[in-house]
Amino acid sequence: MLDGTTDKAAVETLMLEIGQKARAAARPLSIASPERKHAALIAMATYIIAGMDKILAANALDLENARETGMAASFIDRLTLTESRIRDMANGIRAIAELKDPIGEVIAEWDRPNGLHIERVRTPLGVIGVIYESRPNVTADAGALCLAAGNAVILRGGSDSINSSQAIHACLTRGLKDAGLPEAAIQMVPTTDRAAVGAMLSGLNGNVDVIVPRGGKSLVARVQSEARVPVFAHLEGICHLYIDKTAKLDMAVEIAVNAKMRRTGICGSAETLLVDRACASTHLKPILEALAAKGCEIRASEAVMALVPNLKAATEEDWSTEYLDAIISVALVDGIGGAIEHIARYSSNHTEAIVAEDVSAVERFFNEIDSAILLHNASTQFADGGEFGMGAEIGIATGKMHARGPVGVEQLTSFKYRVRGNGQVRPG
Amino acid sequence: MLDGTTDKAAVETLMLEIGQKARAAARPLSIASPERKHAALIAMATYIIAGMDKILAANALDLENARETGMAASFIDRLTLTESRIRDMANGIRAIAELKDPIGEVIAEWDRPNGLHIERVRTPLGVIGVIYESRPNVTADAGALCLAAGNAVILRGGSDSINSSQAIHACLTRGLKDAGLPEAAIQMVPTTDRAAVGAMLSGLNGNVDVIVPRGGKSLVARVQSEARVPVFAHLEGICHLYIDKTAKLDMAVEIAVNAKMRRTGICGSAETLLVDRACASTHLKPILEALAAKGCEIRASEAVMALVPNLKAATEEDWSTEYLDAIISVALVDGIGGAIEHIARYSSNHTEAIVAEDVSAVERFFNEIDSAILLHNASTQFADGGEFGMGAEIGIATGKMHARGPVGVEQLTSFKYRVRGNGQVRPG
Fold this sequence. Notes:
The structure is a homodimer.
Chain A: H1 8-30, H2 34-50, H3 52-68, H4 73-79, H5 83-97, E1 106-111, E2 117-124, E3 127-132, H6 137-148, E4 152-156, H7 162-178, E5 186-188, H8 195-202, E6 210-214, H9 217-226, E7 239-243, H10 249-261, E8 270-276, H11 280-293, E9 297-300, H12 302-307, E10 312-313, E11 327-333, H13 335-346, E12 351-355, H14 359-368, E13 373-378, E14 395-397, E15 405-407, E16 413-424
Parallel strand pairs in A: 3-4, 3-6, 4-5, 7-8, 7-12, 8-11, 9-10, 9-11, 12-13
Antiparallel strand pairs in A: 1-2, 2-16, 14-15
Helix pairs in contact in A: 1-8, 2-5, 2-7, 3-7, 5-6, 6-7, 10-11, 13-14
Keywords (chains A, B): Amino-acid biosynthesis, Cytoplasm, NADP, Oxidoreductase, Proline biosynthesis
Protein name (chains A, B): Gamma-glutamyl phosphate reductase
Pfam families (chains A, B): Aldedh
């Protein structure tokens, strides 16, 4: 392993070599049979279980370093591997192994009047770059998911988890080797030098097709602003829950509590509650009381405070804040139109939900709001590839290009056209 | 109209305003009914026919300028509008008007065990930037195609055709207005200052979602290297035609002549002919003679020259040259494997064709070559959105992200998820 003192030029040379190896590996990978990819994934899971002790020992090193540098408890928690977490990791890879292989699937086909038969067929994207922080399990998740879609992957984990990630990575490459696939299909950047990230963002001379950042807002922001290749990501999830005047009160309360409080730290957690002015007298108080009873801090607009006393006032900043915590901003709006206006202004285009019985309000919500995921009478916390039935996800994207919403195996693919003729030439 | 002497800061301010107006227009456009978009397109076509004299007068100005600056005859031809070309332009818009509106189409839908019903629905991309050169008809084609997909568009035409393009653009905005759509849905950059292009490539503060360059290689190269937003384009079309030993000779001859000579200046024209060594003694000479008879210059590998005397020798550079002219490079290869290797090395991933009767050779060609379009027993010149049945196309993309191959109305869209529940909350 190279350390942080390596000079920049050496890191760039190293990264370009990694890029070339990834591109070279992508070709055999793109034509590997489903059986071979399946075998590699199953072998990886087996090696992870067999390597339990080594992985735990490597993780102990990372944890010791983290404690010495005085990292926060939440950081230590994300970094920590246990026997149970390692088993989950192996099971995650086995679940990915059982997903239907998307490569070669005919997505669409049609005939032309001249007899040409056209097929649009799924192909791998090529080389994926994954840049992540302290969670060592991303090594296994991202490596397995990219392989399942026939892509080569370059993994650049956080320096804090480098020992854990390398121990996991060793299990992945052994699995590739056993199945007769190129080990360079899943490469891990062997240096913690930050210049490696810059090199990946430059695209490594055209040898990285897409970058997926996994981590906090500052990482995603850097990747989005500096990357010279496409990025699948969301910067933040300022998710809204709108309670229409036609909402059933019980359902509204239950969904609001779940959308905000089930897990407050995930991107699909609701950050702003919008209540239709027309039902504020009946719905507002029970919802806020249920949230407060679960320990949620309420930051209220003036109109909300006029109806429910003793609340903290929301500032303008609150409407565009992703708390990722037990805090929610609350405003009244003038029906579905008001909700749409508020969301158009403040949303991060990730996920929004409406609770309503009125079909026309739901249709306006669905048609007029341009977020990746819109839900009716369901919690925003369903914004997740697993919950969508996609199996694993590598993240959620809010961009509009290529992948949008949960990014699973299918979203990590491209396509090509296969055209079958019997001698057609083009007239004219 | 601002002229080329405007200072850079003023141009940038102007462009940012154009970007904001485009983004603002994109929202009403995204929810406009199919009928309204249809009405706008039909009105545009009507105004173009009604404005024939004005458009021809504007074009005469551009032609006068071009002749004064001593432009080449091919350039003058691309720039020239005639009554018949203007009628074609109007008919092109009418054809786009009759395409099925892609927006709101449910691309996929499924149910989850918890009762959630998930739909993936087509939405507009947002704002498209189109940068083109001397062909004034791109103004109409691109404007109409972007509108049909519910997108706002910013058109930046070449300075040589600015008068023609502005006359056409005036017809488009009148059509938008008549249909009650925002005129800013189709904006034309009113300055020929080159700083306007740089501003568009920067993405105009997030107000351009994708750039489509239409023009020569140097334009596309600049756009691809400088754009900070996704680009739908192909830099070049180094298209290969492979004649397998199992090819029917008549078909091979006919397809080779059509693939190269039907039109030599289009991106789907074949630039390299690969002939299976196993059929060189029977197939090579008749194919080369047929090409030569049509006036095609042959640049041959040594092995080809050994079989057919008096040919010009190909250099290494020829294998990666897009002639866009009546020239073809010819090599012998060792069967389908050799063809795949040659194409992997030199192709621009645009379009490749195989002539063969052997199904297994065709399957290898289709599986192992990663170009946007692969054809069996058909001419490479079918690489075209119209020939694919997509109606109009805005270009052909060789990138793997989002759009690939012909870029038609459907490829100018994104999607979102609509999830319908009846009170579901997420457990755990």
